[in-house]
Every structure is written in C-alpha cells, then in structure tokens.
User: What shape does this take?
Amino acid sequence: MNEDVYDGPWLVVGLGNPGEQYARNRHNIGFMVVDLLAQRMGAKFKAHKSRAQVAEGRLAGKRVVLAKPLSFMNLSGGPVTALRDFYKVPAAAIVAVHDELDIDYAALRLKLGGGDNGHNGLKSITKSLGPDYHRVRCGIGRPPGRMEVADFVLKDFSGAERKELEWFVDRSADAVEALLSEGLERAQGNYNS
Assistant: This one.
C-alpha cells in the first residue's frame, strides 16, 4: 500500500477487555489511547455490527475509524476482521494499539508487521489478517518477582505508574497521529524510545 496514494479510512484498533472491571488494567491501555483519540476528533463511540464500538472522524488529515472490540482480548481478530471487511481497509492501514510487556513502562515502539510476542490479542488478529498491520506498542514492563503475566496485565496500573499514565496515554495518541500524518519511519524516529 502506498500511503501517499491511499485515500480510504485508516482503522485504529485499541486492544483491551470490555467491562468496567477491566477499564484501568494495564491490558487496556489500547482502549485508553483510542478513547483520547476520539476526544481529539470530537467523536463518540457507537455500537457496530462487527462486535466493536466505533468512532468515525478525521485525525491528522486522514479519515479514521477508531475501534474497541467488544470481545475479550484473545478474540480480537473476529471484530477486527469484520471491521476491515465492512470499511474495506487494507491490512497496512490498520493500526493496533496495545500493551507490551517487553518494553519498559511508558516507552513506545511503532512497527509494521512482525510476531505477536505472546500477546493474545495480536495472536488473534494475526491469525485472522496475517502479520502486515501497524502496531503502536505501549510499554508496561515485566511483572515484579514471580507474579504471573496474566495477573500482572489484568491489574490496574500502580500508584507510581498512574502519576505518568495521563502523559503516557497522551504521548501514545500523539504517536498514532504521527504515524497517520508522517508515515512509519518518521513516527518511529520521533517516538520509538
């Protein structure tokens, strides 16, 4: 896909688990980022037949569909595939925003393609779409001591982390906008840390 020529909508999918009990979990940073992007667009999320909530508008000069799958994280591929088909979006115009254990807290990495690194949401999307979509990887760090990964990602951010969380979500949203407006390489140069 030539980003300069493509004029269809971009699909920006925040990964997380639906439900108030998960809203502030580390695993839900993708939802937090797309919520902020919807605010920036002045758009409201609405239910969609794809089993996702969507908000449509313009961001960074592009038509954008923001999405929050209503399936649990490990079943994200179904709603994302339905959205891709409904909006006719090529995989290279899909951006998954997700938590990443192997990156320090509040650090970011943007990339196109690659493996799922054990992330069940990415595993589900990749199984449905193949690997050639963009990722905005939001670092949450590794669990302390012997804590299980599943327990760690399903816990709320710690008090110390919450002090930086608003800044981190804001910077992650900025990175998505930069990816859309400047392309991957320039966005990586400015945001990969």
